[in-house]
Write a structure and sequence with these properties.
mainly alpha; about 110 residues; binds zinc ion; about 60% helix
Length: about 110
């Protein structure tokens, strides 16, 4: 996929623009392309922001259309057992300023 080097103002939405807008709205665009898209949006293009808004509105509508469910208590417990040690390990590394210390009971 060619990367535009100079500021472009699109006249119409293309498949490439829609793909970039969709990925960007989902936070799935590669960091380099996201930065380029950001810059492009700030450059005054009128097509890309409206495409992006459309995808963002669709994402919001999708989220609201899903029925709200409370997870079973046992599932929540299992999930927390899995993610809590990793989250704790991350906190310990940051607090130690680079020196790694494993939380008790974890294998690192
Ligand atoms: Zn554009």
């Amino acid at each position: 996929m060619p990367k535009p080097r100079k500021a472009t103002h699109h006249r119409a939405a293309t498949a490439e623009i829609r793909e970039a807008a969709a990925l960007y709205s989902a936070g799935s665009l590669e960091p380099e392309r996201a930065a380029q898209f950001d810059k492009h949006l700030q450059g005054g293009c009128t097509v890309c922001p409206s495409e992006l808004r459309a995808f963002q509105e669709t994402a919001v509508q999708l989220a609201h259309s899903l029925p709200e469910r409370k997870p079973p208590t046992a599932l929540r417990g299992r999930l927390m057992d899995r993610i809590a040690p990793k989250a704790l390990a991350r906190v310990l590394v940051r607090a130690g300023e680079g020196a790694h210390s494993s939380p008790p009971g974890s294998r690192a």
